[in-house]
Write a structure and sequence with these properties.
With about 300 residues, the protein is an alpha+beta fold. Helix content is about 35%, strand content about 20%. The chain is built from eleven helices and ten strands. Helix 3 links the parallel strand 3 and strand 4. The longest helix has 20 residues. The N and C termini lie far apart (about 60 Å).
Amino acid sequence: TGKPSASQKKLPGSLTKWSVCAEIADNDGWCVREPHRCAHESRTWRSRENANITALEQGESEFAIVQGTVDFSRFAIVTPLYPDVMLVIVRKDSGIRNIRDLAGQAISLGPEGSGMRQSATKLLEHYGVPVDALKQTDKYFDQLVSDDTLQGAIVTTGIENQDLAAILNTGDFELLPIEDARAIELKTPFLKMMEIPQGLYGMNGDVPPNDIPVLATTAFVVTTEEMADELVQAVIKSIHEENLRVKFPGVLRREEVTEWVSSSLHPAALSYFYPADNIGMIKETIGSLHALKEL
């Protein structure tokens, strides 16, 4: 989705795809070899959307972490992982008062192929703002602090992202409300409306100055339909049964998973999160067997 900052790597409670990936790998006894890739024998993780989908297709990796707005329809979901919030950040003196005002401005959307950029593109499409109407879109949003020519950014990341906090703590930036968040939720899979409460950010607790509507998606662990059930179950248990939330409080609780996904689950994930459905299937199977005996 974007580059992991040094501060994100150091803070134990900071959620990044790399840090969570590494922790899951460690829980399962895998080794961590390099940023955005963990491997043990043939088991491989990649955590950048512009690489991991291709890696899954080519058999170079067996699991991947992707943002919900990325097209992974040809793969099976193992579990939602943690929520990412979509925020529109602008300079206070930029004159930008709503999302349509972004046209013609230098706005960071994130690298090509990233989930962050794809989320931003969906938002801009709704408001009728073409990406090519913006400037300097491939820059990472942390450059807002050092590059005065950047007027804003559309960011989809964890709420506790340290780069995000550093930008909003300067007092030079504000968050725009996504006024049509409810409408976008209705027509866009894996995007949900949520509210950012007053004072979530800012050195003085003044960003935003009041509750504002935004959008949220979630990061998903995905794999192929053919992935072995025991491996899928091992990954799920390393996330939901190995105290991962102690280090990463933003990771979804097991009971929250069904709020984010009800279809496209890998069969092993389906049996884990919906055990009652399996009981129903067993009853149906037994009933069918009894009916066959009576024929």
